[in-house]
């Protein structure tokens, strides 16, 4: 059973992360900015954030079940890269939205007023002020949420991973991923061979996460230097 | 014709009737001081003139504000166009966390530049430099910052930041400038500089300034309006308001028995 090497899980995790990024960053960041800037203190927005805060606390196995029921069976994606990455995006989305909201809320409203009073439109104000000034906070939030999702096992376990799956060719192939691989290696009967591989995979996973976090720090510092207040 | 003609202006914040039937007529090139106790509606009043109250949820404005002959509350008016022609300076200096240059270049950059024939084109680098220099000279800040235009505006002192905010407002070439307690966060020397600047801007610009400082109103303003609990109690020549107020309420406020 312990046949395949670690390449497929590594590539699998990287592809998963890329897809999660692709799905949850545009929706999460733009959605959060839209809601905070355009709906402000409306009741809808307060209810919305209450819901998002609760969603951020939902255990990841529950998202796994949602993905299994909704994506794998109902939408008939099967155990696939697509179902797994959307399910992981469920985990990442609320985190990214909250990070974005916090970064946007941290900008003093006097700065927005200054821009509006100069005759800028709301969108110009968002584009030239809100987004650049909150970018460092948003980027940090994105990468931290992503590195949390990278280590999630339960959601993908139910939606997209398979033992010894190869590097996927399409969105509908099943895949391997590092956390799942680690789990698998600790469960196998051939322990003497498998346990070192589990540790090796864990090291790689931690390395990936450290690299992501370092990236977050570098990006954040770059923006901090540019826009300081 | 008056530069700004306000007719029966009423403002509600939810149930709070913040301005009641205010009518006032402001002449071009004059400085008008708005005075009155805290919460009487001074800020609300000047924020009606560039429709900044639109941003506040639950704020309802009724009545007419006629600027240069057009009612800015008409349905087909583009609020962005209204604000492009009116500068505003706030109580606390609020520069953008960008360089001094970018602070001033921002508005001309997004709006473009209007040439002699009234056509708008994208601002060239050279034009932006000219506008920045002109605005900074006009706000008496040029000599202090000309060597560090690319440095963050946040490195400036409070008084300099406020003059930068004035320069930023001047860069849109407004006809009217609204000041909401521009000196309340500044020391006396910085305040004196802003007052000199205000007097210098007079004639060219129509200025409305909210102030809690009676001496300041007396020093800079041609006309003074006294608000009390949402009502415009008295409006007239500054000298007359301070030396010979017609209304009892005004007199009480001026002589410091209230507010
Ligand atoms: N954003 C807002 N939401 C609700 N009510 C407001 C808001 N802004 C002002 N008000 C109310 O409108 C009234 C007038 O307020 P305004 O800020 O115009 O007073 P002011 O004369 O500028 O006072 P101050 O001298 O303290 O600045 C007050 O009763 C205030 O509570
Ligand atoms: Mg006020």
Shape of chain B: globular
The CATH superfamily of chain A appears as MetI-like
- Overall structural class of chain A, as computed from helix and strand content, comes to mainly alpha
| CATH homologous superfamily placement of the domain at 2-98 and 174-254 in chain B | P-loop containing nucleotide triphosphate hydrolases
CATH architecture call of the domain at 2-98 and 174-254 in chain B: 3-Layer(aba) Sandwich
Widest sheet: strand ordering of chain B: 6-9-10-3-11-12
Radius of gyration of chain B: 18 Å
Top-tier CATH class of the domain at 2-98 and 174-254 in chain B: Alpha Beta
Molecular structure report:
The complex is a heterodimer of chains A (229) and B (259). In chain A, helix 2 crosses helix 4 and helix 6 runs antiparallel to helix 9. Chain A contains nine helices and no strands. The N and C termini of chain A lie far apart (57 Å). By secondary structure, chain A is mainly alpha-helical. The model of chain A has no long low-confidence stretch (mean pLDDT 90). Chain A has a single domain, classed as MetI-like (MetI-like fold), CATH 1.10.3720.10. Chain B is of the alpha/beta class. Chain B has a domain of 178 residues: Rossmann fold (3-Layer(aba) Sandwich). In chain B, 35% of the residues lie in helices and 26% in strands. In chain B, the strands form three sheets. Chain B has a six-stranded mixed β-sheet with strand order 6-9-10-3-11-12, sandwiched between helices. In chain B, strands 2-1-4-5 form a four-stranded antiparallel β-sheet, covered by helices on one side. The radius of gyration of chain B is 18 Å and the shape is globular. At the A-B interface, helix 5 and helix 6 of A face helix 2, helix 3 and helix 6 of B. Magnesium ion binds next to helix 1 of chain B.
């Amino acid at each position: 059973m312990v046949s395949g090497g670690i390449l497929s899980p590594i590539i699998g995790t990287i592809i998963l992360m890329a897809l999660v990024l692709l799905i949850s960053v545009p929706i999460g960041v733009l959605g959060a900015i839209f809601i905070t800037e355009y709906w402000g203190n409306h009741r809808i927005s307060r209810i919305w954030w209450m819901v998002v805060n609760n969603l951020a606390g939902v255990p990841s196995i529950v998202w796994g079940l949602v993905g299994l029921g909704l994506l794998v069976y109902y939408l008939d994606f099967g155990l696939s890269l697509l179902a797994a990455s959307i399910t992981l995006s469920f985990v990442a989305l609320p985190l990214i939205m909250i990070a974005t909201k916090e970064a946007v809320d941290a900008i003093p409203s006097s700065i927005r007023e200054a821009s509006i009073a100069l005759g800028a439109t709301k969108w110009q104000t968002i584009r030239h002020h809100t987004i650049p000034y909150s970018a460092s906070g948003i980027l940090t939030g994105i990468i931290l949420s992503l590195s949390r999702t990278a280590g999630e096992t339960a959601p993908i376990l139910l939606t997209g991973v398979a033992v010894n799956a190869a590097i996927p060719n399409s969105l509908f192939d099943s895949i391997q991923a590092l956390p799942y691989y680690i789990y698998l290696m600790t469960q196998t009967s051939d322990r003497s061979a498998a346990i070192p591989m589990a540790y090796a995979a864990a090291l790689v996973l931690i390395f990936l996460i450290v690299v992501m976090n370092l990236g977050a720090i570098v990006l954040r510092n770059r923006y901090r230097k540019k826009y300081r207040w | 014709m008056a530069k700004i003609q306000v007719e029966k202006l009423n403002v509600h914040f939810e149930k709070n009737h913040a301005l009641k039937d205010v009518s006032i007529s402001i002449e071009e090139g004059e400085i008008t001081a708005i005075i009155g106790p805290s919460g009487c509606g001074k800020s609300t009043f000047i924020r009606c003139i560039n429709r900044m109250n639109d941003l506040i949820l639950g704020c309802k404005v009724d009545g007419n504000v006629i600027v240069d002959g057009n009612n800015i509350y008409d349905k087909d008016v583009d609020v962005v166009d209204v604000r492009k022609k009116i500068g505003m300076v706030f109580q606390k200096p609020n520069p953008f966390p960008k360089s001094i240059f970018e602070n001033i270049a921002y508005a001309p950059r997004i709006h473009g530049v209007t040439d002699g024939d009234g056509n708008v084109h994208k601002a060239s680098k050279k034009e932006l430099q000219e506008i920045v220099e002109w605005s900074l000279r006009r706000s008496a800040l040029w000599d202090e910052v000309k060597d560090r235009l690319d440095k963050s505006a946040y490195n400036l002192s409070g008084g300099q930041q406020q003059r930068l905010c004035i320069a930023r407002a001047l860069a849109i070439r407004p006809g009217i400038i609204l000041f909401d307690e521009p000196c309340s966060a500044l020391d006396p020397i910085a305040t004196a500089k802003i007052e000199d600047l205000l007097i210098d801007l007079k004639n060219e610009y129509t200025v409305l300034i909210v102030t809690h400082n009676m001496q300041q109103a007396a020093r800079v303003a041609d006309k003074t309006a006294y608000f009390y609990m949402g009502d415009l109690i008295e409006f007239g020549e500054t000298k007359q308001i301070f030396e010979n107020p017609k209304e009892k309420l005004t007199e009480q406020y001026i002589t410091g028995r209230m507010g």
